[in-house]
């Protein structure tokens, strides 16, 4: 890997990711060497772009356009449900972690550029729709956590992603 | 584009990301099979060159996902699909 990332940094992030995953009921890939390389990729991307975008996807460098592929990505949970692993295979299900089954190959779920643009416009419209609720309901696009309050929390209390990963749900 | 020398099984081009574990496995597989191929790390390109290569990948694989292998400008394999890759390069 061309970008210089120190071993200490890689170990630290790997430890943090593993601890956070287990605390939230998620699991990282038990293939330590493979996982280590992915974590190195995350750090290389943080160095390049300022955020840990998916090591297996091409980031644009514009955070707003890359929000859905900042790890954990918007596609992790549905991919875990359908294939036993997320797209890059940093996260796996409990049975894969335990070695009871191998994960299936994960096809790319992220829509192409044109569809992403359309979805983004759609989300902007939902955000503006007049509601009859006392509070707007916000949904974490990563884990599905819902909360009714004026603004989404700064950090998702369930999966720890940042406020900009929330969308207006109702 | 970097060239890896090996047995001629047609023009094998691997579009990859330098940070991706599946791209690394694909490159390793082709190397182990002793097939001659060319590869490019798209994430390490910049500016116009990157745009040009991304458009090239998009022609073969509209989702622009990696790894993408193109063989003889005709057959496309998306993802680390070991059996398919072995079959396509006749190894």
TrEMBL record, chain A:
Its EC number is 1.8.7.2. The keyword Membrane does not apply. It catalyses: [thioredoxin]-disulfide + 2 reduced [2Fe-2S]-[ferredoxin] + 2 H(+) = [thioredoxin]-dithiol + 2 oxidized [2Fe-2S]-[ferredoxin]. Residues 135-169 form the Rubredoxin-like domain. GO terms for molecular function: 4 iron, 4 sulfur cluster binding; iron ion binding; oxidoreductase activity, acting on iron-sulfur proteins as donors. It holds the Pfam family FeThRed_B. Keywords: 4Fe-4S, Disulfide bond, Iron, Iron-sulfur, Metal-binding, Oxidoreductase. Belongs to the ferredoxin thioredoxin reductase beta subunit family. This is ferredoxin:thioredoxin reductase.
Automatic annotation (TrEMBL), chain B:
This is Glutaredoxin. CDD domains: NrdH (cd02976). InterPro entries: Glutaredoxin, Thioredoxin-like_sf. SUPFAM superfamilies: Thioredoxin-like. Residues 12-73 form the Glutaredoxin domain.
